[in-house]
Write a structure and sequence with these properties.
Blueprint lengths: L15 H20 L7 H20 L7 E4 L4 E3 L2 H6 L6 H9 L7 E7 L4 H18 L2 E6 L8 H6 L4 E7 L15 H18 L3 E6 L4 H14 L4
Parallel strand pairs: 3-4, 3-5, 5-6
Antiparallel strand pairs: 1-2, 2-6
């Protein structure tokens, strides 16, 4: 009804999953040959890794990562945007308003991708799925939800190297517990933050429409504040 192409594949049993793996691996190779690319290369994923490594080098030298300035800040949440996106959001007066302005950038033929650089848990999954469905149903566009940095090797290449039809919402938060990486001068928490910031900068470098929402120290409370704002927002 929304003019989105849909294919439904019915599996007889779990063993049909093996056939699906083969089907889509083969389709990927064929599609790559038809459009003249190496479908098994990921130059823009490597680009994000290079930006991450540069940030880690900066962290090693200064013991801190750059802290982007928010365009708006509530008690729990910061909304961060740079470049053209910061200009579009320069007059926002609330988190709800920021989500309205940002979501309305997604039009016909676009998709909205939620990039969650936070701990995956049933609670967080349910909340982010609620947000994804709210965006899908009001904007009537395709939506995706992925956890960083793992999504980099599935949709990350499309985000930066594909058509400029993505509207990206990145979530980050502080880690309650952190662990040192043996042999490295930084922790796993610092690595994850550098990966998120490297991904953000790579998206910005390709002119993608992207904002970053920092949920702060209490992820659950931050997500709930975002959900309340999204549910109250006039997104259509």
């Amino acid at each position: 009804d929304a003019s989105q192409p849909v294919v439904t594949i019915t599996l007889a049993d779990e063993y049909d999953l093996g056939a699906e793996f083969f089907r889509w691996e083969f389709a990927t190779a064929v599609a790559g040959a038809l459009i003249g690319i190496n479908a098994f290369d990921q130059p823009n994923v490597q680009e994000a890794k290079d930006k991450t490594n540069a940030l880690l080098a900066e962290y090693t030298a200064t013991h801190q990562l750059p802290e982007p300035q928010p365009v708006i800040q509530t008690e729990r949440v910061k909304v961060i945007a740079e470049g053209d996106e910061a200009q579009r959001l320069h007059s926002v007066i609330s988190l709800q308003h920021a989500l309205e302005v940002f979501a309305r950038e997604a039009g016909a033929g676009d998709y909205i991708a939620i990039l969650a650089y936070i701990e995956r848990s049933p609670e967080h999954q349910e909340a982010l799925q609620h947000l994804r469905l709210r965006l899908r149903d009001t904007r009537r566009v395709a939506t995706t939800l992925g956890y960083g940095p793992r999504f980099q090797h599935s949709t990350g290449q499309l985000h930066k190297g594909g058509a400029n039809t993505g509207v990206f919402l990145q979530f980050v938060a502080r880690d309650h517990e952190d662990i040192a990486i043996p042999g490295e001068p930084y922790t796993f928490g610092a690595l994850k933050q550098a990966q998120a910031l490297g991904d953000l900068r790579s998206l910005e470098a390709h002119g993608r429409r992207v904002i970053r929402i920092d949920l702060g120290d209490d992820i659950s409370a931050g997500i709930q504040e975002v959900l309340r704002a999204a549910d109250a927002a006039q997104l259509s």
